[in-house]
């Protein structure tokens, strides 16, 4: 996990204190509806990407990862980025986090006045926890870096360890944990550090289906309590619809937003109240947008 402090950042990623003007929406009326569009227009924008370009140099002429990337993510929104392999989803997250700098364009992040909180924290697909630290010290690490006293940071860490159902494993080390448990440590650390934006790069991609479903429910429980802005990268259409308020479907490389899809399913999306027919309609719609992009990606290999 990467924690990004709320301090002056690279020119391509600009924190801003004043609220941004609400964006115009261009979602399908059949999915969003006029009422949904009006509600969106009243929400403030937390992240705005405008004309973002990113290329990687290489011996064979380099790769244009992103081109003309434009996106707005609302405050407290769970936003999912979905697209074919190699379309620049992870690159975009790293640009938002400040781990990379864009070649052109801007990424603006509206920050709160509380300067002690980090602007972003990032949870990676690989288990980004320290193997030489205990579960307790891993979860408390971001707080330690912020200068939080030992007693207080351990109190906070224990609270989130309990929230992710790891009580009793405070003194365990990563090699003693299953893959799902290790990923829970990373998620607990991210939430304990209280970032203004949480970035998640396929955090459950390597897990079995049962563990993945369980951790999705834990993640949504933590998010519903905190109402943090989350940007979540996935390849899984069903996962994106189960988790997201909106989906950004990306086109094949060079990556760009091809379509925004509103997920008009009530929360909590449990087995008991999930509208299966509507879920299937949304899956079909997203696949219709995505299938040509996947084909383009396959043909390039």
How can the largest sheet be summarized?
Answer: 7 strands, mixed
Averaged pLDDT, please?
Answer: 85
In CATH terms, the superfamily is P-loop containing nucleotide triphosphate hydrolases
Let me know the number of strands. 11
Describe the protein.
With 301 residues, this protein is of the alpha/beta class. The chain has one domain (2-119, 196-300): P-loop containing nucleotide triphosphate hydrolases (Rossmann fold, 3-Layer(aba) Sandwich). It is 36% helix and 23% strand. The chain has eight helices and eleven strands. It has helices at 33-41, 89-97, 135-145, 150-163, 179-192, 209-226, 237-243, 276-300, and strands at residues 2-4, 13-16, 45-56, 63-74, 78-82, 104-110, 120-123, 197-201, 229-234, 246-250, 257-262. It has a seven-stranded mixed β-sheet with strand order 1-7-8-9-5-10-11, sandwiched between helices. Strands 2-6-3-4 form a four-stranded mixed β-sheet, covered by helices on one side. Helix 7 crosses helix 8. The longest helix is centred in the last third of the chain and has 25 residues, at 276-300. The protein is globular and about 50 Å long. It starts with a strand and ends with a helix.
Summarize the structure.
With about 300 residues, the chain is of the alpha/beta class. Helix content is about 35%, strand content about 25%.
């Amino acid at each position: 996990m990467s924690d990004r402090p709320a301090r002056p950042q690279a020119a391509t990623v600009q924190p801003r204190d004043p609220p941004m003007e609400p964006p115009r929406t261009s979602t399908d009326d059949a999915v969003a509806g006029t009422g949904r569009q009006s509600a969106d227009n009243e929400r403030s924008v937390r992240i705005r990407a405008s004309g973002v370009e990113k290329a990687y140099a290489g011996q064979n002429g380099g790769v244009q990862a992103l081109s003309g990337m434009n996106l707005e993510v609302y405050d407290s929104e769970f936003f999912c980025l979905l697209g074919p392999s190699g379309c620049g989803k992870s690159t975009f997250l790293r640009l938002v986090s400040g781990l990379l700098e864009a070649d052109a364009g801007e990424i603006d992040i509206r920050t709160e006045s509380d300067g002690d909180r980090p602007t972003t924290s990032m949870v990676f697909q690989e288990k980004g926890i320290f193997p030489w630290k205990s579960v307790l010290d891993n979860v408390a690490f971001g707080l330690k870096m912020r200068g939080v006293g030992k007693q207080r940071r351990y109190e906070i860490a224990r609270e989130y360890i309990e929230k992710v159902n790891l009580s009793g494993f405070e003194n365990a080390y990563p090699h003693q944990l299953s893959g799902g448990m290790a990923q829970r440590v990373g998620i607990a650390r991210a939430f304990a550090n209280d970032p203004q934006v949480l970035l998640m790069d396929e955090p459950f991609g390597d897990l079995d289906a049962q563990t993945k479903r369980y951790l999705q429910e834990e993640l949504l429980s933590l998010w519903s309590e905190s109402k943090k802005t989350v940007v979540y990268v996935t390849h899984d259409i069903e996962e994106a619809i189960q988790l997201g308020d909106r989906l950004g479907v990306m086109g094949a490389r060079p990556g760009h937003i091809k379509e925004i899809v509103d997920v008009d399913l009530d929360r909590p999306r449990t087995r008991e109240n999930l509208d299966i027919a509507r879920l299937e309609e949304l899956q079909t719609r997203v696949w219709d947008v995505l299938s040509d992009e996947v084909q383009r990606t396959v043909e390039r290999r």
